Amino acid sequence: MISKNKIKLLRSLRLKKYREQNKKTILEGTRLIDEAINASAQIDSVFATKEILHANQSLAEKIQSHHIPLDMINQYDLNGISDTQHSQGIIAVVKTSSFTIADLPNGLTDHIIILDNISDPGNLGTIFRTCAWYGIKSIVIASGTVDPFNFKSMRAGMGAHFYFNHIIIDNNQSIIDFLDADKFNMYCADLKGKDISKVNVNQKWAIILGSEAHGISSSFQNYDKITIKRSEKIESLNVSVACGIILEQLKK
């Protein structure tokens, strides 16, 4: 049975500073944990109630076949760790990996998504899953964007975090200096931009997506702007939806 010290550690991971200190976060739910195993995530351990293991014997066997430590936990303790109203009965502790620009090796992929001031963790996780679907291998988290290893971001990403070569977290100027030096063609998604279907986007590109409420930060405003043609005077488009439309257009 799980120890009190372990419970204390798991509860601490609800806070960003402890996720950063320990380089770990929490995955919750059978589907997310199954996806993480499929993606070869570095899972430290799994904690589950008897009931959930009995109802999901195939997942329990999969956890054991991958030699992931599995321990029992009661629902009361699980509720104190989870940030959802109704815990799903199973959590996993997983190692996180992020880079700064200075950490990057040579040979960064030619297609990059930059997330600027994205404050909603659900949107962030959905963007991650969309990018993974389209084969994006590098995502850059710019200033003002929520922690990508937030519990809600992990749930919304549904395992997508583990399909990237690089999750880069850095300040705007360092990002700009690096991408300019490496001759990336940078484009901002903006309502006043040029229709993306009419833009000849060069092969080595970086797309900057800003928040629905505030748009792109001033530090990125000098780059070419692209937009998605709209048929009505809708004020804005959800950033995760816009990400999917843009990637579909760019991949044609």
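Second entry:
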Amino acid sequence: MNGRKYLLALWLSITLYAVSSFTVGPVGIASYEKTRGSLERLRTNMEELKAINHNLEGIMDALRYDSDTIMVYARELGYGAQDERFIRIVGLPGASKRRVAAGQLILYKKPETVSDRFLRVLSLSLGLTLFIVFSVFDYIGKKKRNPSDNFSKDQVFTAL
């Protein structure tokens, strides 16, 4: 029966390490869920960037091949044809500036997890604590069973 207690301490420390590593460790379930959330944000951002790229390609093609589009953009910038004249009124806002968003920068953040080293130390300390507790109980149990090892009051006084 004595050996089983010590094996139980070893088994519990290994089990604690395995379960905690599987749930909150660097490659555990919590880390996986956080990484999966980041992946979804990155995929959404990629789709938005593809839509912006498609829009910009359409504008670029229109500027390359359509002279009317070039004239509209030039007028917005304050240019005109040779036979046109402009009257600028002070105090009025200028022409509308077309700005196309280039997208949003999203960086991957490594998920915060409990370090593997901490989990090892925690499980090892649990195993050692149980080992020490079981050893102390065994020692106390042996002392109670063998009272001859303890000195009686008479033996102490006769020795003095």
